[in-house]
Design a protein that fits this description.
This protein has eight helices and seven strands. The protein is of the alpha/beta class. It has two domains: 40 residues, no CATH class; 169 residues, Vaccinia Virus protein VP39 (Rossmann fold, 3-Layer(aba) Sandwich). The longest helix is centred in the C-terminal third of the chain and has 22 residues. The protein is globular, with a radius of gyration of 18 Å.
C-alpha cells in the first residue's frame, strides 16, 4: 500500500520527474541529534532528509515519493488516460491517486487499511480489500468495470525472507484475481512486486490474459530495494 506499504476463500491478510532540478543536486543533510532514536531510525531519517524524491514530492505537493514511480511507469507505458476508470488497491497515503487525477482520470476508487485524506473527486474506502464482497463494492462505487487496476499493496513484513515473499506473492495473486475478474478488454494492470518472490504462477496468468507483460524498476525505487513493478497491458478479456 503505498509507501511503505497493505476470496478462493479469500486469504485474510491482514518518469519525468526523475528527481532532477535543485533537489537532485542538494547537499547532504546530517542528522544533528540522535537522542532517543535507534541507529536504524537515525539512518532512515538521514536517508529521508537526503532523498531527492522526498524533496521533490514536497515541492510538487505529492503525499509521498511513490507518486514518481507511477509517473515514470505512465510516461513509459501510458496506462492512464483522460476519462479512464481506475481502482487503486493499497492507496495510502494517496500519491498514486494524485497522479491519476493529474493525468485526466475522472473516476477512481481507492482502498487501504489506513485512513487516507480526501482527494476529490476520488472515492476512498478505509477497509480490507480481501474482505468478502469488497471486490463487488469497489466496482459498484466506480460505476462499472475499470480500465486500470493499480496495486501498491504490501503486507507487514516480519524479517523472515521466505515468509515475507510468500505474503507478498499472496497479495499480488489477489490483486491479479481482482484485475482478471473486473477489467475492461484492453485494460491495464500495475502491481508492486519484489525480486525473488514466488511469482511464476502470477506471471503465467498475466501472460495468458494480457498482450504485454513487463517488469519495471522506476528510478524512484530505491537502489537497495528489491522492489519492481509488474505492468500488464492489453487485457484480452474473460
Amino acid at each position: 500500500m503505498s509507501e511503505p506499504p497493505e476470496e478462493k476463500p479469500r486469504k485474510g491478510m491482514v518518469k519525468p520527474p526523475m528527481g532532477g532540478g535543485d533537489a537532485g543536486r542538494m547537499k547532504s543533510t546530517r542528522v544533528k541529534t540522535a537522542k532517543r532514536r535507534t541507529a536504524s531510525s537515525n539512518s532512515w531519517l538521514a536517508r529521508q532528509l537526503n532523498d531527492p524524491f522526498v524533496q521533490e514530492a514536497k515541492a510538487k505537493g505529492y503525499r509521498a515519493r511513490a507518486a514518481f514511480k507511477l509517473t515514470e511507469i505512465d510516461d513509459r507505458i501510458h496506462v492512464l488516460r483522460r476519462g479512464a476508470r481506475v481502482v487503486d488497491l493499497g492507496c495510502a497515503p494517496g500519491g498514486w491517486i494524485q497522479v491519476a487525477l493529474e493525468r485526466g482520470v475522472t473516476d477512481i476508487v481507492g482502498i487501504d487499511l489506513l485512513p487516507v485524506e480526501p482527494a476529490s473527486p476520488a472515492q476512498i474506502v478505509e477497509g480490507d480489500f480481501t474482505a468478502k464482497g469488497m471486490d463487488r463494492t469497489l466496482i459498484e462505487m466506480l460505476g462499472g468495470p475499470p480500465d486500470v487496476v493499480l496495486s501498491d499493496m504490501a503486507p507487514n513484513t516480519i524479517g523472515h525472507r521466505q515468509t515475507d515473499h510468500l505474503r507478498i506473492a499472496a497479495l499480488i495473486e489477489l490483486a491479479v484475481e481482482f484485475a482478471l475478474g473486473s477489467l475492461k478488454p484492453g485494460g491495464a494492470f500495475v502491481a508492486k512486486a519484489f525480486q525473488g518472490g514466488e511469482l511464476d504462477e502470477v506471471l503465467k496468468q498475466l501472460k495468458q490474459h494480457f498482450k504485454s507483460v513487463r517488469h519495471l524498476k522506476p528510478k524512484a525505487s530505491r537502489a537497495d530495494s528489491s522492489e519492481v513493478f509488474l505492468v500488464a497491458t492489453g487485457f484480452k478479456g474473460r
